[in-house]
Amino acid sequence: MFGAPMLGQWKRGQAFLLGFPLLQLRASLGLAEVLDLGLGFDSFYGTMNEPLLTVKVGGLRAGGWSFAASLEAGWAFFTTRASREVRGARWITGQRNGNLSPGVLVSYQGTHPRAARLFIELRYTLAFDLEPYSTSPLSGVPPPFILGHDLGARVGAELPLSARTSFVFSLGLMVHTRAEDSPVMPSAAVGVVTGL
Q1: Which residues contact 16 (CB under 8 A, 6 or more apart)?
Q2: Which listed site, 35, 156, 157, 159, has its alpha carbon 20 to 30 Å from 192?
Q3: Model confidence band, residue 83 (pLDDT cutoffs 50, 70, 90)
Q4: Which residues contact 106 (CB under 8 A, 6 or more apart)?
Q5: What is the dihedral of CA 136, 141, 143, 147, to 10 degrees?
Q6: CB atoms within 10 A of CB 158
Q7: Cβ–Cβ contacts within 10 Å for residue 168, how many?
Q8: Count of CB atoms within 10 A of residue 10's CB?
Q9: Where does the pLDDT of residue 121 fall: very low under 50, low under 70, confident under 90, or very high at 90 and above?
Q10: How far apart are CA 130 and CA 167, in angstroms?
């Protein structure tokens, strides 16, 4: 689910991750041997909720290594207006109303069927802020939308517990380029992945 290997045609996977800053749910279906399509949901524990559409394309393998590209597109809903938020969900996550996030994945798994699936993910996020506001009376009328750019990296592993269930953990770092966001935000998560 989180590494580069594909699910396989008509195979399904589900995942639940509990962590900081996000709670994550994922469900994916292998439409082809090299294409997975999925739905997701990210939440900053209720103050930001974001349904997602995910696409992963892969199939390139060399020994125990796998490579894939992914794309996540989401629309975030915030409980607090941007003009009233002070170091809240936007500041921590870097997310805005619309978010488009391409990424690349590299994974390694040993030859044993129950070997851990290690993964590295590099991701760029383009955030569409549809709630820009003036920060001072003399700053003028804000534009209708503002683009934000974030860069992230995550490492982790899926550790098989049985033929269909794995424990997953990840550690990451996100760099925000907007002055209104935290410059750097670490992330950590643990959870469970299941496959059918």
Answers
A1: 24, 25, 26, 191, 192
A2: 35
A3: confident
A4: 4, 65, 66, 67, 119, 120
A5: 0
A6: 25
A7: 21
A8: 10
A9: very high
A10: 37
Instruction: Judge whether 39 and 54 are in contact, CB under 8 Å.
Output: yes
pLDDT tens-digit map of 146-180: 999 999 999 999 999 998 899 999 999 999 999 88
Q: pLDDT-derived band of residue 120, with 50, 70 and 90 as boundaries? A: very high
| Distance of alpha carbon 173 from alpha carbon 99, whole angstroms | 18
Position 176, amino acid: H
The span from the CA of 105 to the CA of 123, in Å, is 9
Does residue 113 register a pLDDT over 80?
no
pTM recorded for the entire structure: 0.91
Length of the chain: 196
User: 3-class secondary structure for 37-96?
Assistant: EEEEEEECCCCEEEEEEEEEEEEEEECCEEEEEEEEEEECEECCCHHHCCCCHHHHHCCC
Q: How far apart are CA 191 and CA 178, in angstroms?
A: 30
